[in-house]
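Thread: Newbie trying to understand structure tokens

Hi all, I'm a second-year student working on a class project, and my supervisor (Dr. K.) asked me to get a predicted structure for one chain before our next meeting. I've only ever worked with sequences, so writing a 3D structure as a token string is new to me. If someone could post the tokens and maybe explain what I'm looking at, I'd be very grateful. Here's the chain:
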Amino acid sequence: MPASATINHPSLPLPIFQISERVERYLFYDAATVTWLRSTHHILGVLIGTLPKFPQQNIFLGLPWELQPEEARLLVDKGVAYIANDLQWHINGIRSLKPDELNQYRESLRKEGLGAARAAENQKQQRRKMLNKKHSNALSNRDGKDGCATSESPQVEEQEEDTLFDASLAPQSSRPSPVPAPASASASVTKHSDSSLLWTFTPTTSHPLLSPPPQPSKSMVPPVKSSAYALFKHLHSHGYFLSPGLRFGCRYLVYPGDPLRFHSHFLASDLEWEEEIDLLDLVGGGRLGTGVKKGWLIGGVEKNKAESNKRDEDIEQEGDQTNADQKVRTFCLEWGGM
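---
Reply by user tm_fold:
Sure, no problem. This is what the structure looks like when written as tokens:
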């Protein structure tokens, strides 16, 4: 089934949350929005949030989802999103709420956490019943010493099926041996649900407590380096996916499709059209790209004679403005002797 058939289309334009006016970091907090932008607009971003149950690891990361400045700029230029001041929006929104609205919202979070705790407890009881059933069958079929060894196998099998995230379902340090569950197990869930089984539910978004931030009359434009944004926009328009390339010593990693399905093909770096390139950089970039089975790609905006005769002061006054009619040329280097 195509991805577009299963992903809900959000209402446009989308707010890109900037932490504050002084901090140029652009975030999304909604998983559905992240999925839609990735599948529809080839925006990769980077997950930077730790998991609440496992805050000391950085292998599995979650929301929020941070954009590169070039990604945020591209969405704003396309009219898909706008920049919203996250800090100011929350301050104004919280101050405008009434005490009854806050209490109602807290109660909805408590009920949602209670429902999640009950579902987890029911799942735990079902697993225990299945384990006890296997344990009983093994005891009935045992024969001598071989039967004793068999009777211990269900517990080992149950441990092998555990995953990393089963710790949230069983907070005790060691699992008890499989014993028949008491008949009043379901009653105990209901009796102690408000205390021992109450899970804390932390939403990733401020909806529906706060309404979406209003679109400003004058749209804010994320500042970007002109040569980097021109290269990013050029490659993105040809269907490539781009992610940060810091670990490979380049500006972007360029993928022919979603990184979940493809390896990157190029290590891309931006250059000015008349910028001098050191020969060692050419050799090092080409060897590095070939060594990791990629091509080293350099690109920049082609300038005509009139633009080449401009003074440096005129170029600095223009800032990071990018024109739609800019022609970007790219060159790929590969080391043939490796």
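A couple of things are worth pointing out once you decode it. The first strand starts at residue 14 and ends at 18. Confidence is low (pLDDT under 50) at residues 150-161, 167-194. Feel free to ask follow-ups in this thread.
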